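Researcher: We're teaching a course module on how sequence relates to structure. For the next exercise, students receive a sequence and then see the predicted structure as tokens, so they can try to spot secondary structure elements on their own. Here is the exercise chain.
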Amino acid sequence: MHIGNLNVKDGVLLAPLAGVSSRPFRVLAVKAGASVTYTEMVSSEGIVRNQNKTFDMMRFKTDEQPLGIQLFGANPEVMRQAADVTARNFKPDIIDINFGCPVKKVVNKNGGSAVLKDLKLTEDIIRATVEGAGETPVTIKIRTGWDDAHPVFLEVGQIAQRAGAKAVALHARSRAKGFSGSADWSSIRELKKSVDIPVIGNGDAVTPQDVRRMLDETGCDAVMIGRAALGNPFIFKQMRHYLATGELLEEPSVEDKIEMARLHAQLMQEQFGEERGAIMMRRYLGWYVKGFKGASELRPQLFQVTTISDIDRVFAEYLAKEADNLSNGERKIA
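Model: And here is the predicted structure for the students to work with:
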């Protein structure tokens, strides 16, 4: 798949995830095989106002690339300026426009999926962003529409193409659905048939088999993975392997997952400092231990950690306890 001058291999991408897609998460995704990563969505207003907190969200290193910086906003001129600053000062591989976020604090400012209610504004934003981005390819991420009664994804795809966007990612649900119900993959297939630029499918691709099926059923050029990667960076390696061979890799062991969580925590410490990194890590830890035996007892302990050493200690105690339980069980059988 080519996005402008960028060649994307093996087409399994990490979705931009608000409050999640910080540098540590992106690094682990790339190590596991993600073809492209994205920052959290970044406010165009924050960029043009030179807010340091906003710029911190945009910084990245080569071990996270190829990488897209995702912008959101409802003012075309502000988006043009923000794209210009982003392209010149940060030099990402892609600038992505968020037209899909369903969160109230974003749509109440007419950002995210709210823009889909005004297709003239949608086109103005895309054109302005493309102009500001210069040689950096611009892509968009959309929902099928504001609600199920008003699907606009075909019109938006065609608008994006003529306005200069180089790819479109479609989360196959309306804004009204949020993350509930089933994604309608037929909309991805329809969009692929209606445009010449690459189409990236998103929604309910959780397993390697799902990715294969989405590619086959819709004809999309790549698949974007979001919630399935939470606490599970291994998913990218599993998906790429299945696409290449048709074979499923073994699921990671509890020890593998804990080792990955500890590496994630170390990266969080490097990025955000000891205490802040540990506190920010709590939510990820809850995802990592999903499905663990005794997770209901383990999770509250992890949600109280304040240092990276706390995380190591809680996991060491958990593994020791599980080893004792196994040993006692073997003795009883004997």
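Model: If you want an answer key for the exercise: The CA atoms of residues 37 and 67 lie 5 Å apart. The domain at 2-245 is CATH 3.20.20.70 (TIM Barrel).
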